[in-house]
Amino acid sequence: MNHPYRTSESASPIRWASAVATLVISTLGTSCGADTNGATDPEPANPSTQPVAATLSVNTVEAVTGGHTRAVWIQDQGDGTDILGFGTQVTIVGVDSQDERGERPLVSNPGTFAKPLFTRNGDRVVYADRTDDAVRVVDFTGANDRRVTTGFPLATWIDPDSGVEWVYVGTDPKGTDPESYGQVHRHQIDQPDQAELVWDRRAVSGDSFQVSEDGRLAGALARWPEAGLLELPNGEWHPLGEGCWTSLAADDSGLFWYFDGQHRNLTIVDNEADDRWTVNINGAPGIDGFEVYHPRWSNHPRFLVMTGPYTVGGGGNKIRGGGRGVEIHVGRFSADHRQVEAWTRISSNDSADFYPDVWISPEVEVPVGPAGSGTGAAADTVPVAPIVVEARVTESVPLPSPADIAPYRNGLLVLEYEVVDVVEGSYDESVVLAAHWIIADGETLADARRPAGTTLRLRLEPYAAHPELEGERLVMDSDRFDLPLLYDVDSDPR
What we know:
2 domains, globular
């Protein structure tokens, strides 16, 4: 298999393997048709009349990516909580590392826009207009904004032989949360009446669909929280785990990830090697251990994009709170995908930035990472064996309700405990950070509440040692990211 991506280490094909992320560089910075008739096309954005944010630094961004980089996302001009583009005050914003225009709107007027996606050549952006149930495409310059077809855009793809560009479109919405689609067609972007049914065997989530370079595989939620690979067209479904925001590497390596219920870690699966590992992504500079969202593999398999930090939401779901401090971050995987070895912040503004995609020139020479110089994630600093402790809750924490964690049906809450006595095993810290079950099958458990001063005997094991929890919602309001996260094994009601 030929890989058109190069590194400055060598021009040999990129290979991939395992474990947990580290972070080294901080910078600035969830009826198919071909009808092209519909609402009046918006005027192309006029950069001379639009506000422009701080100019993207070529040096800082390209120090991480190695070359020409573009990013696109939705920006909430309202209260900063529209994380998926359902409101009416959403703009589509882009930035290019090789011009000095900074952040600029690609569509002139706010609307109900979602999921902007670069075409594989990086010169156009496909996006959803929810008010018109439309898939649209616009040049990255803001020109030639037009309707493509009806439905919701799932992914873009270019035929490696013919060069024809396609958009994969979800139709037959099922009314689920998150929304899923019963049919997937692909349409030629420039001849949208040329459409093909590629999948209708089970509903797939609109947020989490990507296609391999050869077009034979798709990574998907089918449907949430079941994550896995689809063989296209209409082949087998291969379930690989439970989570959200699945993503598939844009080459033909078959590397796939799903995002955990903590909104902090990726589980990367190498299906061919029958191997999987965890990569932490909320330790990026500026995230400070808070939750992140919208993770997505870029067109280049060494890079990902995400949003964060999410600090202002209440209850059991800070993601819903959004916030004007949420920015776009691009990370560079190590060559073996064992960690994220470098980060850069792409956006810099006073608005809330969500739902990003990033395009990086396939011709870039990926910088050689400072191997081993990153900082390890706290989640990986775990005791070598289970422990039993007498521990006292240090602070009362509001108990999330089933509605707070929806659409999740199960939830755990992380509390801080003062260690009164280590009964079994070895633990040197005076405080322990432990997760216990609070909600199961949509119902609050009778013993979920643990007010300050409550003393309990806890049998604790590393949270990371329980992969069955990776798809469950984990609510964590602690800032003790220096402590290992443990799991109260006896709280499991199942």
